[in-house]
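Q: Structure for this?
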Amino acid sequence: MTQIVKSKIDQACRVAEEFTKLYYETSDKRRHLMSRLYLDSGLLAWNGNGINGNERIQKFFIDLPTSDHTINTLDAQPILDSAVNGQLTFMIQVSGTVKYQDRVPKSFQQNFIITAQGDKWKIVSDCFRLQEPLSNNEKT
Amino acid sequence: ISFDISEEVHLPTTQQTFLCNQEGESIVRQFLEQYFLIFDSENRQPLLQAYHESALFSMTMSYPYGQKDRSTSWLNWYTTDNRNLLRVSDPDRRQKLLKQGQVAVVSFLQEMPLTKHDIHSFTVDLVLFTSQMICLAVSGMFRELKSGHKVPPTRAFFRTLVIVPAGSGFCIANETLHVTNATDEQARLIFKTVVSAPATPVTSPIAPRLTL
């Protein structure tokens, strides 16, 4: 394994630590700033609901019940150059628990693709899933 | 008479599938069917062709909220390779726990306990679909077979795949896998989906090669 890849792996891990700390603090306490974390054309897939663009994502977060996230696991990798033309891009995976308003906490899993834009990291895509039985919402 | 400010805010309804691009549906469906057909067999070696020669793979594990009592099916097998950056701070260890290259990845997959996935329990999120790169996340449940537990454990997983074009098909460039236990509410539903449509014809395990 070349040094370049090695240093990218180290960097992906460090950036993932900083990024997730900021992301969950912002979504729990300073939601009005959420849009700044995304590319203008960023995508959020929240439990299968797709929201396109950072302004609509901002509105989506404002409309969610208040949240309190606890992170249990964090993992990160640099995305292979062939996929992103050498544009520095990382994939981050998180699991944890989230408590909405006064509800019972639930486990969740989430992944992010983040990319370097100028001197800032921006979310390309954000995919969130609560761990819950599917039949709750199915009408069969 | 009280004040009307403690109104309950509702969560959006869960959708089983999200596709950022409808064109991606058949590709994703085909890829997942072929991948899990091989993954659930005793020989996972054919998956070599599904991975990029420089593919990266890592795994994390944890227990679901509130589930850590004596009745739990322990996730011991998964702890050794748990690349949880919150616990693993040593850079060398972080490097080592990241499987690098298709041989390392598939060797690890081959060591994992035998499984049977419930494809009807899957959620699929296709979040990126360009000519250069596809990113999708799959969650769902599987039964763990022959792993020494009295009752075969029901696990839940969440996989993120970055897929790139390769030759006439596609292969996986990056993958993260999260393994946890199914919650009691989830586990009750495993393999319970009644399919009314005719079952997909069973094909022999072939490598996930995709064509556009």
